[in-house]
Design a protein that fits this description.
The complex is a heterodimer of chains A (307) and B (223).
Chain A lengths: L3 H48 L1 E4 L3 E5 L3 H8 L1 H33 L5 H7 L2 H4 L2 H11 L6 H8 L13 H28 L4 H9 L4 H30 L2 H6 L11 H10 L4 H31 L1
Antiparallel strand pairs in A: 1-2
Helix pairs in contact in A: 1-13, 2-13, 3-8, 3-10, 8-10, 10-13, 12-13
Chain B lengths: L2 H32 L3 H4 L14 H9 L2 H32 L5 H12 L3 H14 L6 H25 L4 H8 L4 H12 L1 H17 L2 H11 L1
The chains are: A mainly alpha (307), B mainly alpha (223).
């Protein structure tokens, strides 16, 4: 028989065990949270505050200047051309990667021998760092000794070797093409996974109805891949827009700053010109551009779904 | 087989070979160039296959540059980052997966949200912070920064993995007197080893390949 005192002490024991569990759970996640708050969220907030103040390397933050940094950067030619360069770089890379990725995913989905091998081999451009990609292609696109120029001239596609890094158009084109090459494996493999979730019956039913491959693509494949495409496009756009390594290492922002994207501008503003407040302002505008992109993108997507 | 079908199959195989070659050829070219005799590197027309192999370039970087020290730096930093981020990440992911406390779901979302932050946005204040803490151009500074950038992904990956492991085994062990942490160590980790291995690979490669932070933290000392 249980007395009320006994029951009370049992429930107290259970309660303290319960509380102990909770504390342990919080304790286990605390280091991770501390780091994330300290080195991600706090710096982000600091960046925003920094963009509204002046900063000196010796003395630190030296006073509120309001929107002065933002005014300076927005009217500067460097910022405007960097913004434009970023847009071309991002839009070009993503559209190329999506189109090529879709095509290659289809190819890899076909029932042919050696697909497993092909699927694992193509991952290489994605697996290596931006630095490796940059240096491989700088050597390939060299205007005197590069293999690409040699191949193009031998095939009589062009008469003279192209100085890929000598003119703004060629440099940006080269940059975008290299980034497409680099991003294809990820896109292709993600789309391949998506393709494999589309039920076969739909294609068979379409064939019975006499659909050709284009109709199959538009009415079965694309809707089936819709969610995958949306997620991948959003994440990759954010990532490509913010990426520093490849433009910096492939072209250095040249020639004449034509390939200087916003991350590169922020970097040189901070660490070459020591204008930390303006650099912070540039970074904040980058974040705002991406935020705007995400909002507009999802609004467009939701409208389509509503129809 | 009808000729049309054969052409179709040949076309498909050719396309796949072409795609694979396009992805791999640049790497072959890099490897072949590195193994050429120095004089042959600038030969015109360029030779696809080196006429004779030579380790001259490898010898040069090994002897005549700071390669050894830099390689050691990279290795030490990448390994340390992997170890630290795995420990903190595993404990944190286990907590997010198995425990109940207020704000747990919010933490999960916050973690995923911070994953989307661009490095360049954080690099400037990180630089200022590290300078303040005197951690510029130290291994510690980079390891701490890399760990922090890796944590959201590792937490998300391992939490998902732990979620798929049935809780019964742990509960059975705890009935037998095992504590929570011992259950984690003896039971959950062995079962989760594929996920942990994947997280370890991602951590190592991310730290090894990282450029911006390392360049920024280094640039300060050389002016």
């Amino acid at each position: 028989m249980q007395t009320s005192a006994f029951r009370a002490s049992v429930s107290r024991l259970r309660w303290s065990r319960f509380a102990q569990e909770r504390l342990l759970g919080i304790a286990l996640v605390a280091p991770a949270l501390a780091l994330i708050f300290g080195l991600v969220l706090y710096p982000f907030a600091y960046s925003v505050l920094l963009s509204f103040q002046s900063y000196d390397l010796q003395r630190g933050l030296t006073g509120w200047i309001g929107l002065a940094s933002y005014e300076r950067i927005i009217i500067s030619v460097d910022y405007q051309s960097a913004l434009w360069a970023s847009v071309i770089w991002t839009v070009g890379s993503i559209s190329g990667q999506v189109v090529a990725g879709l095509a290659i995913a289809h190819l890899l989905n076909m029932p042919l021998r050696g697909q497993g091998l092909a699927r694992s081999l193509i991952i290489l451009p994605w697996a290596v760092s931006g630095l490796v990609v940059a240096f491989i292609w700088r050597w390939l696109l060299n205007d005197v000794y590069g293999l690409v120029n040699y191949a193009l001239v031998s095939a009589h596609v062009i008469q003279q070797p192209i100085t890929f890094f000598g003119t703004p158009t060629m440099a940006m084109s080269a940059l975008v093409v290299v980034n497409i090459w680099r991003g294809i494996p990820f896109m292709a493999l993600v789309f391949l996974g998506g393709l494999q979730t589309i039920p076969h019956e739909r294609y068979e039913a379409a064939k019975v109805d006499g659909a050709n491959w284009w109709q199959e693509f538009v009415h079965i494949t694309l809707p089936g891949l819709r969610h995958v495409i949306i997620v991948v496009v959003v994440l990759r756009t954010i990532w490509v827009f913010n990426w520093f390594d490849l433009p910096w290492l492939l072209t250095g922002g040249g020639p004449l700053k034509s390939t200087q994207t916003l991350p590169l501008l922020a970097y040189t503003t901070a660490f070459r010109a020591s204008q930390f407040s303006q650099a912070a302002a540039i970074s904040v505008t980058m974040f705002l551009v991406l935020l705007l992109f995400v909002i507009v993108f999802f609004r467009v997507v939701r409208e389509e779904e509503g129809e | 087989m009808r000729p049309r079908v054969v052409v179709g199959i040949v076309a498909r195989y050719s396309l796949i070979v072409f795609v694979v070659a396009a992805m791999l050829l640049p790497f072959y070219w890099m490897a072949a160039s590195s193994l050429k005799q120095p004089a042959e590197l600038f030969a015109w027309p360029p030779r696809l296959v080196p006429s004779s192999l030579s380790l001259a370039f490898y010898e040069k970087i090994w002897r005549a540059t700071l390669f050894q020290q830099h390689a050691v730096n990279s290795l030490v930093i990448a390994l340390t980052t992997t170890a630290v981020s795995l420990v903190i990440g595993t404990l944190g992911a286990y907590s997010l997966s198995r425990f109940r406390y207020p704000g747990r779901r919010l933490v999960g979302r916050l973690v995923l949200f911070s994953y989307m932050f661009p490095s360049i946005l954080l690099v400037i204040p990180l630089f200022i912070l590290m300078k303040h803490l005197n951690l510029i151009n130290t291994h510690v500074g980079l390891v701490v920064a890399y760990t922090t950038f890796l944590l959201p992904f590792i937490l998300w990956l391992l939490k998902g993995f732990f979620d798929t492991l049935p809780i019964d085994i742990e509960e059975a062990a705890m009935v037998d007197g095992c504590g929570r942490l011992e259950a984690l160590y003896h039971i959950v980790l062995p079962l989760a080893s594929p996920g942990v291995a994947a997280a370890a690979m991602v951590a190592f490669l991310s730290a090894w390949n990282e450029y911006l932070l390392a360049a920024v933290f280094k640039s300060w000392t050389t002016g």
